[in-house]
Write a structure and sequence with these properties.
Length: 148
């Protein structure tokens, strides 16, 4: 499962799944819209927008069937789970996972693929970050006499 030397892991991921190409274009668009006076923290953008979209597409979570959210139980709250319950739930979830039938699909489920693809997206987001604070905001004009 090695990447050919003429092809980076990022490029391999882009060629493997059109959804990864679409997510990369989304990141490119986000980076292109940022003006120097705007606030777009690269880390905030990654955590709140891009990472939730990437998790089911690449790395360890790829190939899992989507789950429906359970209805909340009345009077619910925190449920304590033992280690054996957690392991049993993990093993049951692994049985529902779609099998990797190709070398590329197997690679897309690795940490190596996650690091190659997501590392490049994070690099681009951080490069576009104008370092004006946290969050994602358009620059707003401040009228004379107003505190900023």
């Amino acid at each position: 499962m090695t990447t050919p030397p003429e092809q980076t892991g990022y490029e391999r991921a882009l060629k493997a799944d059109r959804r990864l190409r679409a997510l990369a274009e989304f990141v490119n668009a986000l980076c292109g819209f940022v003006r120097p006076a705007d606030t777009m923290c690269g880390g905030c953008t990654w955590d709140s927008l891009v990472k939730p979209l990437a998790v089911p597409l690449i790395g360890w979570e790829r190939g899992r069937l989507p789950e429906s959210a359970p209805d909340p139980k009345p009077g619910g709250g925190w449920k304590f789970v033992s280690g054996s319950e957690w392991v049993a739930a993990f093993e049951a979830a692994e049985k529902d996972r779609a099998p990797a039938t190709t070398e590329t699909e197997e690679w897309l489920r690795t940490s190596e693929a996650w690091d190659a693809y997501c590392g490049e997206l994070i690099r681009r987001l951080n490069a576009a970050d104008p370092a004006n604070g946290h969050g994602i905001h358009r620059h707003r004009r401040v009228r004379r006499g107003e505190a900023s």
